[in-house]
């Protein structure tokens, strides 16, 4: 069955995955005597589902269903294609916001235990605009951790990566300690020579932070409610310790497209 809308004949899809989501709104009582925005916007999860629903066609058939159904009229088929030539004095290539990283030891429990997260996720958690508004909380139960481990995910890497990831780990530890009362943080990683020379003396003075020159090996989870057990090496000796939250220092992964562009422009990626 077809129907007419906006002077177009629309063929309904029988396999649309979900109904359109309803925009959340504050209650009538909350609207009284103020200028608060009534529509609160989609939460992230709902926005993703709605975007997937809108793209349910999977490929453009030229049916104009998207155009006819789009109330804000955001779709304009009359915009012509054009090529622009722009001149710049300098081009800066950045790694973008893909947040992709090279694989690391799967025994560290990332993806299996919600209390094992990456440095990128932890950075988002520490942000005042992040999901926890800057508070350090367990993704599993929302509790404030008492013991936090920041561990190196790429043990055999070059000194440049080790240096940058160690600096990131220390900075994240400082923020976490500043915002969490009585928190204990252990940073476990090989300590490269440049870090030892430039930053180690100052890092060792940070109250609540313990630097361990070692290597994280595996993470195990005990019974419900029990902390994570981290197995690591220090001075060629295997040790174990319990932590409420574990952050893995990752190595960013650059997309092939950016690598190709970097070579073409003879410009480094920053």
Structural description of this entry:
- The chain has 270 residues and is of the alpha/beta class.
- It has a domain at 106-249: FAD/NAD(P)-binding domain, CATH 3.50.50.60.
- The protein is built from eight helices and nine strands.
- It has helices at residues 28-31, 44-54, 65-69, 119-126, 159-179, 193-198, 200-203, 256-265, and strands at residues 3-5, 8-10, 116-118, 147-152, 184-189, 209-221, 228-234, 237-243, 245-249.
- Strands 3-9-4-5-6-7-8 form a seven-stranded mixed beta sheet.
- Strand 6 (209-221) and strand 7 form a beta hairpin.
- The model is unreliable at 1-11 (pLDDT under 50).
Mean pLDDT: 84
Radius of gyration: 25 Å
The CATH topology of the domain at 106-249 comes to: FAD/NAD(P)-binding domain
Q: Which of globular, elongated, flat, extended, rod-shaped describes the shape?
A: globular
Q: CATH homologous superfamily name of the domain at 106-249?
A: FAD/NAD(P)-binding domain
H/E element order: EEHHHEHEHEHHEEEEH
Whole-Å distance between the termini? Answer: 55 Å
**Number of E-state strands:** 9
Strand order of the largest sheet: 3-9-4-5-6-7-8
Number of helices: 8
CATH class of the domain at 106-249: Alpha Beta
Instruction: Indicate the CATH architecture of the domain at 106-249.
Output: 3-Layer(bba) Sandwich
Low-confidence stretches: 1-11
Biggest sheet statistics = 7 strands, mixed
Sheet-strand content, in percent, reads 15-25%
- From the helix content, strand content and strand pairing, which structural class follows? alpha/beta
Helix content: 25-40%
């Amino acid at each position: 069955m077809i129907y007419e809308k906006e002077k177009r004949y629309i063929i309904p899809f029988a396999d649309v995955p979900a109904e359109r989501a309803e925009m959340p709104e504050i209650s009538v009582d909350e609207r009284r005597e103020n200028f608060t925005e009534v529509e609160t916007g989609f939460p992230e999860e709902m926005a993703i589902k709605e975007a997937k629903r809108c793209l349910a066609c999977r490929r453009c058939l030229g049916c104009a269903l998207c155009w006819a159904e789009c109330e804000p009229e955001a779709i304009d088929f009359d915009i012509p294609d054009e090529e622009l030539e722009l001149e710049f004095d300098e081009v800066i290539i950045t790694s973008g916001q893909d947040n992709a990283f090279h694989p690391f030891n799967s025994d560290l429990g990332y993806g299996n235990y919600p209390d094992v997260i990456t440095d990128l996720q932890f950075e988002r958690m520490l942000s005042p605009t992040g999901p926890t508004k800057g508070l350090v909380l367990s993704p599993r139960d929302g509790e404030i951790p008492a013991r936090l481990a920041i561990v190196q995910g790429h043990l055999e890497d070059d000194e440049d990566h080790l240096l940058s990831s160690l600096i990131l780990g220390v900075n994240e530890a400082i923020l976490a300690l500043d915002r969490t009362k009585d928190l204990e943080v252990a940073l476990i990683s090989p300590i490269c020579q440049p870090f030892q020379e430039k930053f180690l003396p100052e890092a060792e003075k940070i109250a609540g932070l313990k630097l361990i020159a070692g290597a994280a090996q595996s993470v195990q989870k005990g019974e419900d409610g029990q902390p994570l057990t981290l197995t690591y090496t220090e001075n060629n000796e295997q040790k174990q310790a319990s932590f409420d939250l574990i952050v893995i220092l990752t190595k960013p992964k650059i997309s092939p497209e950016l690598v190709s562009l970097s070579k073409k422009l003879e410009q480094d990626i920053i």
